[in-house]
Each structure stands twice: as C-alpha cells, then as structure tokens.
Amino acid sequence: MSKEETFKELADAVISCKKEAVDAAVEKARSEGIEPAEIIEKGLAAGMNEVGILFERGKLFLPHVMLAAGAMESGVSILEADMPTDAASKKLGVIVNGTVEGDVHDIGKSIVSTMLQSAGFEVHDIGRDVPLQDFIDKIKETNADMVGLSALMTTTLPGQKEVIEMLKEQGLRDKVKVMVGGAPATENWANKIGADCYAENASEAVTKAKELLV
Amino acid sequence: MTTEYTTRMGDGQRILMTREQILADLKEGMADAADLGEIPDLSEDELDKLVDIIAMPARMVGVEPGKEVPVTHDIGTIRIDGDQGNSGVGIPSSRLVGVMMHERAFGADTMELGHIDYSYKPVKPVISNEQQTMEVCQQNTIIPLLYGAMPNLGLYYTPDGPFQNPGDLMKAFKIDEARASIEGAAKHATRDITWIMKKMMSSGTDGINFDTVGAAGDGDMYASLHAIEALRKEFPHIYIEAGMAGELTLGLHGDLQYDGKVLAGMWPHQQAPVVAKAGANIFGPVVNTNTSRSAAWNLGRAVTFVKAAVKASSIPCHVNMGMGVGGIPMFETPTIDAVSRASKAMVEVAGVDGI
Ligand code: B12
Hints:
Distance between the termini of chain A: 38 Å
Bound molecules: cobalamin
Oligomer: heterodimer
Largest interface: A-B, 11 and 15 residues
Number of strands of chain A: 5
Helix content of chain B: 40-55%
Radius of gyration of chain B: 20 Å
Radius of gyration of chain A: 17 Å
Distance between the termini of chain B: 38 Å
Structural class of chain A: alpha/beta
C-alpha cells in the first residue's frame, strides 16, 4: 500500500468516528514504518479537518465530531509510545502548553505537546479551558522558557492576548517566549498581540520553538 | 435607465433591484440549495418565471386560474385573540370564533385546533377541556378540523421533564448518556402524542397536525414518525399532516434511523419519503429564510428545495409559508407583496399541492 493510501485510510477512519477503526489504521500505519508525526499530521489531522467540513455542511453532527475527536485522541495515544523522549539527555527547554479559558478544543494542542516533547522539550500540558491565571502560575512554578497558547475559536482568541498582558503586568514577559496557535490564529494576529511566534501546525511549532529556545 | 423593481430583503426591508440583479440572486440561492441538498438546479424557464413573479407590477399577486390549491392554517384558532407573541392580532374572541372566522370569513380549507401552549405534552392535564372544545368546534363547522401542536421534545428534558438535558451531557462529553436521554424522551413523546390523539379522536377530530417536527433535532423527528406510525395503525382513516420545523434535520443524537435511513442531516426531499412511509397524508416542507439575503435569493433557494421535495414525495406536499420560511421575509407580519409572490412561486414553479 502506498503512503498516500495509508494516509487516506487513517483519515477515513477518523471520519467514520469509530475508535476501533482509528486504532486499527494507526497500528497498520505503524507496521508499515511510517513516522508517528506523519501519521498524525497527514492522516489523522487531515481526517479531523474533513470532519470539520462535513460538520459545517450538515453531513455530520456534534456527537459525531465528539466521537471522531475521541477516536483521534485514542490513535494519538498509541503513537505516543513510539515517540519516547530521551529523559536522560538535557532538555531543550521548558514549555507550558494549554488551551485558553472558555475553549475545550484540545486535540491540536495535545498533538503540539506530544511533538514538542518528543523533540526533547520538557512540556507541561495544563489541559483545556484553562483559567488564564493558571498559565502564569504554572510558568512561575516550572520556571518555563516558553508558553504555548492554543485557541480554536474566534471568541476565545483574545485569551492569548490577555495572557501576554498578564505576563507584562507580572514582569515575566522578558523571561518567557510566547507561541500562539490554533485554527483562527495567524501570523498577523501573533504580531498584533506581541507574541514571539505563531505556528500553523505541530511540526512548525517544533521548528519555531527550537529557533527561539535552542 | 434600467428599470428597478421593488422587492425585499430577508428581514423585510424594502429594496430596489433590476431584472438582472433579481436573476443573479435567484441563481445564487438556487445554487446554494442544489449544493447543500445535492439536488437539481431549476431550469432556465423556471428561473425566468420566478423573475417575472418577483417583478410583477401589482403589490399583491395570485396564482393563475385553475391553479388554486388548498390553504390550511396551523395555530389559527388562537391567531385572532392571541397577541403578537403567537402571531395573533389581539381581538378578544374564543377559539371557536377563531375557527369559524377562518372557515366562513377567510376561506381556509382546513383548520386546526390548538391550545395556547401549543406543545403536546402540556395537553395531557387539560385533555378534557381540549376534547370539549373540539366537540363544540366540530358542531359549528364543516371544514376538516385537525388537532395540532408541536412534538417539542425539549419539554421532556430537565427542568421540564424526567430526562437529563442532552446538551448538558454532551458538554460533559457524555455522548452515550446524551443519546440515551434523547431516546428516552422520544419514547415518552410518542406515547403522549398517541394517547392525546386517541382521546381527541373520540371527540370527533378529523386528524392531527404535527407542527414543527424536528424542532429539537433528530430525536424530535424520530418521536413524531413513531407516533404517526402508531396512529395510522390505530385509526386507518385518520388524516395526518406532518410539517417540519426547519430545512435540515439537526443531529443531536446523530444515529437515529427510521426505515433504515439516518434522520440527522436530512433535507426536505429526504424527509418526505420517511414521513410518507410512517403513514402521513401530507408532508409540510420548510425552507428557512436568510435575513441578510434578498427575497430573490431566498426564493430561488426555497423553490429549489421544495421542488425536489415535491418530486421525491409520494404524498401531497403543503409547503410551510409564513414569517421566515418558504422565501418569505422574517417579520412578525410579513408583507403581502412578499407572501403572495413566494406563494405563487411555490404553486406554479415548485408544484406544491397546498399551502
Ligand atoms: C473537534 C471539534 C470539536 C470537538 C473538540 C474535541 C476536543 N477534545 O478537542 C467538540 C465536539 C467538543 C467541539 C465543541 C465545540 N466546537 Co468545535 N470543532 C471541532 C473541529 C471540527 C476540529 C478541531 C480539531 O480538532 N482539528 C484537528 C486538529 C489537529 O487541528 P487544530 O486544532 O487546528 O490544531 C492544529 C493547529 O491549529 C496547531 N495548533 C493548535 N493549537 C496550537 C497551539 C500552539 C501553541 C501552536 C503553536 C499550534 C497549535 O497545531 C495543531 C496540529 O497541527 C473544528 C472545525 C475545524 N475544522 O477546525 C470545530 C470548531 C473549532 N468548533 C466550533 C464550535 C463553535 C464549537 C462549539 C461552540 C460547538 C457547540 N455549539 O457546542 C463547542 C465549543 C465549546 C467550547 N466552549 O469550547 C467552531 C468555532 C467557530 C468560531 N467561532 O471560531 C469550529 C471552527 C467549527 C465551526 N465552523 O462551527 N468541537
């Protein structure tokens, strides 16, 4: 089976909203020796995007999207085992990552966390719908070098800006790099709110984090 | 100078458009329906006819002689004394007077008796009152008089009913529980509607109107279809009308099926066959109005959807025409120019059997 066919199979499994189908497709892709990052980005995430389109067109509904999301999470968790972080080696940097308050979308954010971790960063994923103050607290607690802020809705995007303001207020802004992401975020938005970088996807997030921290 | 014609926006605002602009908007609305429903476009002739209808000089238009269709009214019994909240005109009167006015003064072809809450569930405690009113109305009229209300599955969820609100459960990522809740509510609704109609039939009711089927999503439609099926079995000659709540059956559950077909995501032309299969006599397709588009855009879209539904339906289609549906602007008292044009278009282009 060609790689493209495998990616299609992975995407179709997510679209089918069935956990078993996704797990099976992931296992198969693994056995074909495809990189976990590729399985996620070109297969599973592509399928999730299609789910979004079908949702907008009234072909799939909220329960389906939730099931697809659950199925995708399950697939990603299988792959996490393949992306071991070398605990012994020196960490590239400490990153706090989370989805801002009011927003429960965390699939993309979790993928970013996983990829950053497997690239050698120490990642503290503080979850979804995170009260903005919690980002600050966690940054202080872990002495983080960078914070990742995910927002998937236009309505929660301003949360990213607020965290930056809060960092300034507490005199932390110079010590911590800010990376923003999520579908409605853009390079322009990142510049406008004074973030250090924006990344469109998880692999770009790794590249940008390395540029800033290593 | 190009001639401009007075027409409307979807919110009722008066605007001026040229024939070219009207045609362009009709085509755009049509394309939207054809794309969403995966249904055929209208023909060039049909589009020309729609342009003609919209551009007619008279303020009010009507169908060509010989093309008249029956007109029935939902909730009409309380439209006389109801206030604006239920689209009434606030004239003190009784429901009997309302029915009689529609029959004798307004020329309605069939009528419906409904109560002020207009959902089935709250009819249960006042069933005797409803039976008595039906009897009195039947004694004073000759038109077919149905009993009607909304299946309104929402009333079966907390805090109004015994089942946990599926929206709340869904938010807590409890998908299976949410689905079980919808299925439970649907069973109760089917049981209630069937019980109410057995009572109403014993008081001389001619039939039932399921108004706003699917308002609470696919579970609402599922409950209605099963109630239709049960009533058809119990009363082989009962007249059953099933009118939809909106153009698309929303999938709150997502997997409910009837006759082997998934209800979520159905457009009017897909709803018609399942409604017929359940045993209804009349299907009432609905197409929603977009308030920020022109009447032409909305009409092109609505006629495309309804024409496909009429074609797919084995039972007569009585299209829902009122504020905010069927290409009519969303406005408490929709203007007669828009109502009469949209109605003419539905009859002469979409081919509906009634309104
Ligand atoms: C799955 C999904 C859900 C799932 C989420 C499950 C979960 N555990 O995450 C569920 C069903 C719960 C859900 C709920 C809702 N959703 Co939703 N959902 C989606 C959907 C279909 C896909 C999102 C997704 O996971 N994509 C796949 C992942 C891999 O991509 P991603 O998230 O974009 O992440 C990538 C990049 O953005 C980037 N990235 C992400 N985060 C970060 C962070 C950093 C630091 C960096 C550098 C990069 C980065 O890298 C990731 C990997 O490549 C989108 C539509 C879409 N196509 O985006 C709607 C969408 C985001 N949802 C939407 C809405 C409206 C809602 C609800 C309000 C629906 C409702 N009516 O209840 C609720 C939200 C409740 C709330 N308070 O948050 C809207 C938002 C509209 C808007 N205003 O912007 C969308 C756009 C759909 C739509 N058009 O209506 N949703």
